[in-house]
Amino acid sequence: MHNTDDVDLRLDLRRACALLTERQRVVVVLVVTGMTQQEMADALGVGRPAVTRRLGRARERIGGEM
């Protein structure tokens, strides 16, 4: 049985993720798994500045939602 707070958190996370682009969602998930920005860049085949931008834009988009 789920706690009401758990359900609310899952709904908040779904709403927040829905605001993100696929690229932004990917880097957010990788952050949660503990990867560094350099590790993400290497795994995604992009430069570290691209990862930094994606994370920054994701934070801007979900800032008011979380």
What can you see in these coordinates?
The protein is mostly helical. It is elongated, with a radius of gyration of 13 Å. It is 74% helix and 0% strand. The protein contains 4 helices and no strands.
Summarize the structure.
This protein is mainly α.
List the helices and strands and how they pair.
Blueprint: H1 4-18, H2 22-32, H3 37-44, H4 48-62
Helix pairs in contact: 2-4, 3-4
Name the descriptors.
Arc Repressor Mutant, subunit A; 0% strand; 66 residues; mainly alpha
Number of helices: 4
Q: How many strand units?
A: 0
Q: Enter the CATH topology name.
A: Arc Repressor Mutant, subunit A
Average pLDDT: 87
End-to-end Cα distance, whole Å, is: 24 Å
Residues in helices, as a percent range: over 70%
**Approximate shape:** elongated
CATH superfamily, by name, is Winged helix-like DNA-binding domain superfamily/Winged helix DNA-binding domain
CATH classification class = Mainly Alpha
* Structural class by SSE content: mainly alpha
Strand proportion? under 5%
Tell me which oligomeric state these chains represent. single chain
What is the number of independent domains?
1
CATH architecture: Orthogonal Bundle
**SSE succession:** HHHH
List low-confidence stretches: none
What is the rounded Rg? 13 Å
Largest sheet properties: none
